[in-house]
Specification:
Elements (H helix, E strand, L loop, with lengths): L2 H11 L9 H27 L8 E3 L9 H9 L3 E3 L10 H7 L7 H11 L1
Parallel strand pairs: 1-2
Length: 120
């Protein structure tokens, strides 16, 4: 399958079991399982380092975070509340920017963080 078509399928159908007879889950789950295994190890390390702190939520960023049904998939694997990051949640942005780019906010997490670091 051409790369563009594969990316389109991932962005459109993601991990939705009701789309394409659930075939995308079969294709994507091996990679996501590797990622969630690494995340689980990081969570275990965090809990060992900070036994008195509670991890309340995992936030996904980047383009993969926009894949349909990825947050519930990760949440099921990690057994930790999982959501999609919005690096602009407390930012004052013109409504036109929010309207145009709001759904893509997770793509701007690193850029937003670097911008904020320069202003601290």
């Amino acid at each position: 399958m051409p790369t563009e078509k594969a990316v389109g399928y991932k962005q459109t159908y993601g991990l939705d079991p009701n789309q394409l007879d659930g075939r995308m889950i079969g294709v994507l789950s091996p990679l996501l399982n590797m990622i969630t295994t690494e995340l689980a190890q990081s969570i275990t390390y965090f809990k060992e380092l900070y036994p008195n702190d509670v991890l309340h939520e995992v936030l996904l960023t980047g383009g993969g975070a926009l894949m349909p049904q990825v947050a519930p998939y990760v949440q099921n694997k990690l057994q930790v509340q999982t959501g999609i990051a919005n690096p602009w949640y407390a930012a004052t942005l013109p409504q036109a920017v929010r309207d145009r780019y709001g759904k893509l906010a997770p793509l701007f997490s690193v850029a937003t963080g670097l911008t904020l670091r320069e202003h601290d």
